[in-house]
Amino acid sequence: MSTRVPIRWLGAGTAAALLLGLTACGPSQTASYEVTKDDKNAADVILKNQPESPYWFPDDLLTWTPKADKDLTWNKSVVPLAKRVADKAIKPSNGTQNDKTKVMAISIMNSSTSGNAPRGLNSADANTFAYWQYVDELVYWGGSAGEGIIVPPTPDVTDEAHRNGVPVLGTVFFPQDSSGGKTEWLRTFLKQDADGTFPMADKLIEVAKTYGFDGWFLNPETEGLEEGSGTPLAAKDAKAMQGFMEYYKSRASKMRIVYYDSMTKDGTVDWQNALTDENKMFMVDDKGKPVSDEMFLNFWWTEDELADQDLLKSSADKARELGVDPYSLYAGVDVQANGVYTPVRWDLFAGKDGKTHTSLGLYCPNWAYTDAKSLDEFHENEASLWVNADHDPTATPKRTDRTDWTGVSTYVKENSAITALPFVTNFNTGSGYNFFRDGERISQMDWNNRAVADILPTYQWTVRDGKGNSLNPSYDYTNGWYGGDSVKLSGKLAKGSQSTIDLFAADAAVTGSTTMSVTIKATAKTDLVARLAFSDGSTADIKGDKAVGEDWTQVTFKLKGQDGKRLARISLGLSAKDDASGYALHLGNLTMRDGKPADAGSVSDLKVTDAEFDDDQMYAGARLTWKSDGKADRYEVYRVNQDKSRAFLGVTNVTNFYVNALHRHDKTNRTEFMVVPVNVDGDQGESASAVMQWPDNSKPKAAMSASRTLVTPGSTVTFTSESSQNTGSVTWSLPGSDKENAKGESVEATYDKEGVYDVTVTAKNKSGTNRQTYKGAIVVSSKAPADLTLLSQGAHAEATAFTNGNEAPAMAVDGDVKKKWCATGEAPYELVIDLGAERTVSQVDIAHAHAGGEDAGMNTKKYSLAVSEDGTDYTTVREVKNSSADDTSDTFAPVNARYVKLTVTQGTQGAETTARIYEVQVLGSSDPLI
């Protein structure tokens, strides 16, 4: 039974253009919401029309143009880089923080280089980073020899970072030779034309300007070689790299470029772990002219064996000698594997006076996300990594050893992008297991979209408890005002005793008409006080206009008498009217503004520009686009049901949306979509609708698989239906077995006599019947091996493509599931295994990407198997159209063959096509039995 949630509706209808028809949104005063249910099966459904963020090899980027980029509008960042509060305007939280020390985070924001949706999908599994206040620059880390080595950030990351005043850089990654690096990639990248231009530098600038991010991080770890000689090119490469960066800055002076301490002046890859004479040419040239903006120093400065060199102090000294700001150097710390358990020689990072020598560079702080098993654990990890073990930036770090993790907040001061009003936050982290609107749950579908994440509290967390009080702050994903979560304070309060939570740093002008409001609920009657600090050193405690109870309540505070001041800090005081144990308060919204919000405006011309369906036509992927009058802060996307209730599908900050894995929801063969504009306060404007038609899939399709097809007499075979999802019942015809006829999704049958037997499976529903007969599906022979023989290990293998010698076809049949055959380029890719002689083949087992340790999204989705006696004429024996498994085992009617061909049609779960096959095992009989 559907759950309906009545919520106020402020929009009136307009006619909209549709893909397959016209409809209009009728005027309405209220809207009824059907709570969207989570569909776990949808996680395995990724259709080819899903927009994908780009990545390139050098040759590919040289041919890229914005006009030819079909996903361009999906991948543009639309949030400008926000101004941040001046360093001096924010007071330190503790005695060791300073204004000069900056942080560069080199973070894996998505699990792979390829297959990334521009603004999230219906999954809560995303690195929704929450500590932007400690980051001055984010490097979107990506690139691999198998996918692409030039990787711009996805727009959801750029949008969120920019909202917090943090610039974002893409990555250019030249892998080491052992990781598949190719000298020709470096050659193409550094090529200079006769007129002095560097074509690749121009492309990098064009990409960054087109997609709306702020520059590039260069990581050159491929050593160039003289062609055909194996001899390093020495200084030629280094000089070309220096010239490349100088040219880049001459063409785009405000666009950042960061150099990683890898290549030295003689062109070899030799990490210095410091700024030295060996790598200074990548910071300044011989005349002292800047070459790059910053340098990320390699990690080994913190190793004990290098401690006596005091590399960071010497780097700072060298920087000053060269006229370079020492804080444009970032001391690298690799936390990818061990996070807060990473030993760091902090005594080498900061001098005895507590002042740091350089800035701090964190490599893979995404450890907090990858190490966690839940969103709650993710936030616990982040607080320990970025703040300290106490999760309180005002606390003195507890250190038992000089290498213990102290937390970034020990050295780095918080910052803020709140420099003007209005300021509105719903404390929305950008993902969740639910979606809330006006405090009501309208969806139970997992989701993520970092582009709509709010500015989160600057101080995570600073709570000052009054006598008898004890409150613990956290994010709560089971309650929210708007989005996926709220801030929760839980614990106990003593009657009349006040606790204060510091929330935001700011530097914004207020007037006598400025108001602050919070939307909040609590398990006990609670009085609230807005505790505000101003830049002139004054403070104000302003009582709320009402108390808070169990229902969501908006409490308002008027800033009369504060005209002309600049707001510096926002805190909230709370006290219970009676003793409250087991106390919980949820903070859902905080708003500060002068005057009233602008209306949400309208959208029009909603279109379904592309729709694709899975093989069973039970799921759809739909691209929606629309026009906006530009007034909206964001847009909510709904499915309109037959009873006119609305089912939430997602929220976005741009005028397009991809509906991912939409389940067929009724028998009308049509879906009506609605897009609703929303302002910063969550008020809705005038909507538009469009209709998508589904193909008719009322009749079932019969299919089956068998546990084994080549067996000895007396063997039992399990048959499993693989019929379409709309199948009502399944029946079997199994001649030659102990069950001539059977019913059910899965049946077992025993074959006692030798022979070759057909299998027929019949799928039936109210709309019809479909029957499929598999000729010669089961071969029963006394000569068949009791356990099928592995025929392919060590066999000769060839492929139509492979990335490099370390990922060659032979790796697919070497028996080592840690090595792979990897192919890039244009699919399909073919791998042919020569068994050396004719054999009887009946089964092929394959280990895909996740079985070898890569992300499950890289598992092969579509592939086929074919066999041949002569290597010329092939017969397809198995076709798989929708797999997501780590390991697959495909059986088929036994056949004599010498050659087995695997064809990968779609190499990943997303749009990216790269094939990653860690092992192929062809099984059957060494002797031909057919």
Mean pLDDT: 92
Q: CA-to-CA gap between the ends?
A: 56 Å
Apparent shape: globular
Strand order of the largest sheet: 5-6-8-9-10-11-12-13
Helical segment count:
9
Judged by helices, strands and strand pairing, the structural class is mainly beta
User: What percent strand?
Assistant: 35-45%
Indicate the radius of gyration in whole angstroms. Answer: 31 Å
Helix content: under 10%
> Tally of extended strands?
53
Largest sheet: 8 strands, parallel, barrel
Unreliable residue runs: 1-29
Q: Which structural traits does this protein have?
A:
930 residues; mainly beta; 53 strands; 9% helix; seven-stranded antiparallel β-sheet; eight-stranded parallel barrel
